């Protein structure tokens, strides 16, 4: 059934092909990615036969989003091992492909540790490769389960904070099935609200400069039959002042020990707006995104992206994050400030929702307790 915006009411699969999958054709194992730079125009697959192809895919954002980067990193180590490449070298290159999302290095470490433990036992590289693959598959499964539990906890929290239902939720960047082994993080909560008949509207920030909201979140929301509306990032203020936002739901790339949250650039201004307008600002992330080794927000390395992503618009149907060559929107030679993420201090975060439960208020002690409970030290 179509609603006012002409969207179908079906809850279809988020994409025709999964965001990531491992395959073993006769020519040797490969990691197949859905190339996210081509969405929403087309679902094109990218086949990685070695870790360096995966490093490139991570850099171009063909594969992206914190939980999926962790899964991809783990499979990347398994791929290097299975193809007989130097595992440590591949692991270092993968872990360093993007600096902010801690899940990437966590996933890489998990597969590398599994490989090394097997080899140390005298298992040999083939058994090491099998162990690394098993670790990657396990992480993939765990992320899917975490996603389901985050959605349950998040939906319950929305019910507590906003009794009466009919939620109008604002989200930023893309946090759905495209970034996860399951249905995602913040988006999975909005989807659960939709399925429970409690989502009145999903406000989707376009998410400049690479448009993860417009290209990816709107794509997933449309396929799910959710009532959604796209806005430019700088329209959010007027939406708040019109009283049209009941809650903000975002994901995270790294949560420091003090509760500071690094997420897609533009998240922090939303937190400030939310506080001013007395609207809950909720972060949804698996426990693997909490990094007890990063003490505070100032210690989080924020990735700086190339200026052309701001000074040019990608040509329609072309990869958004290519090596320039798009349509110029600024004079030639213009310098651009292009951080991929910003950091929201804990005092602006109403709650952090994880698969292990909700931390609110967001304090170092609350997060430390969560990490201890889940064995993430
Ligand atoms: O640069 P990206 O597209 O990888 O940034 C992704 C985000 O900022 C997401 O919000 C974050 O990874 C959380 S995804 C569950």
Automatic annotation (TrEMBL):
It catalyses: 5-(methylsulfanyl)-alpha-D-ribose 1-phosphate = 5-(methylsulfanyl)-D-ribulose 1-phosphate. Its EC number is 5.3.1.23. It comes from the Bacteria. InterPro entries: IF-2B-related, IF-M1Pi, IF_2B-like_C, Initiation_fac_2B_a/b/d, M1Pi_N, NagB/RpiA_transferase-like. Substrate binds at residues 64-66, 98, 212, 263-264. Catalyzes the interconversion of methylthioribose-1-phosphate (MTR-1-P) into methylthioribulose-1-phosphate (MTRu-1-P). This is Methylthioribose-1-phosphate isomerase. It comes from Streptomyces galilaeus. The lineage of its organism: Bacteria, Bacillati, Actinomycetota, Actinomycetes, Kitasatosporales. The gene is mtnA.
